[in-house]
Amino acid sequence: MARSIIIDCDPGVDDAIALLLALAHPTELNILGITTVAGNVPLHYTSQNALKICALANANTPVYAGCPRPMVRPLETAANIHGATGLQGTELPEPQQPLMVQHAVAFLIDTLQQTQEPITLATLGPLTNLAVALIQAPAIATKIDHIIAMGGAITHGNMTPAAEFNIYVDPHAAQVVFKAGIPIKLITLDTTHHVLTTAEHLTHLRQLNTAVGNAAADLLAHYGTPDQERYGLPGAPLHDPCVIAYLLQPDLFTFKPTYTTVDTTSPDNIGRTVIDWWGRTGKAPNVDIAASVNTPDLYALLIKSLAIL
Ligand code: RIB
Ligand code: CA
Predict the structure, then answer these.
(1) 235 lines ligand 1 (CB under 6 A)
(2) Closest CA to 60 of 31, 103, 102
(3) What is the mean pLDDT of each run of 10 residues along the chain (309 residues)?
(4) Does residue 8 line the site of ligand 1, with CB under 6 A?
(5) Does residue 158 line the site of ligand 1, with CB under 6 A?
(6) Ligand nearest 77 Cα, by number?
(7) In the chain, fewer beta carbons within 10 Å around the N or the C end?
(8) Which is the CATH superfamily of the domain at 3-306?
(9) Residue ranges per domain, the chain?
């Protein structure tokens, strides 16, 4: 039976690959909607990019535009990595459908209020949309069976020394979501930095010899260069597809229950996920943090999936 999910994202190249991975599995993942948020690039581009990825996958999954800025902080984008429009390095098809008229937050609330079955939230960007929905209609928390999120860091940040981008952009939203009492699995940079898109993986994508495989390889090649140079890695970390890979093949990952909060105040640490890995606080766990990943099998799943589209 397909799992009903909503994907909240800020495409962004890794979000785009994650969307393609999800769209390749309609029998396992019933995508009720894609909601977009400002993050890697401004909302206009994240929304148009989501529509373009749906067109590339020949999917008519509804796309709902959400919040154009974080709850409190001014928007800081990651255009330095994703480029001005968020998807550089390849020609993508034009959108085949318009954005839905309903705001993403209203879609989240209406869908969760009306659903007869629990829904899984897959979040790939700043958590603004989900946090605003939870503030506006707290009872929807009981309808979310799981949040699988990419974000945070046990150790080093990638936006500041302390903070990972998704949490840094909207730390207040992350705090709201982490304290909502919803089962959460968080895949942090400490795990995604073991999922590296090497030249070999790019070759395997190109060997598919399909529009999707070539577009994915082009996008990843263009996006990966800054990260590869910055981190001195054999490939760029592939963050967001980890969330969808978990939904498709949970045994690719292991997790550890932890008490996790977000620093929303200190100038140097704002957006830091304060993860009690060793249980020093004695406080009840609220977030399961990814502890390991089977990288070879994850890429095998990704390549096999993109070959389907
Ligand atoms: O830190 C990585 C995360 O920030 C990914 O979701 C990437 O798309 C950006 O949103
Ligand atoms: Ca993202």
Answers:
(1) no
(2) 31
(3) 96 97 98 98 98 98 98 93 89 97 98 97 99 98 98 97 98 98 98 96 97 96 86 93 98 98 97 98 98 98 97
(4) no
(5) yes
(6) 1
(7) N
(8) Ribonucleoside hydrolase-like (3.90.245.10)
(9) 3-306
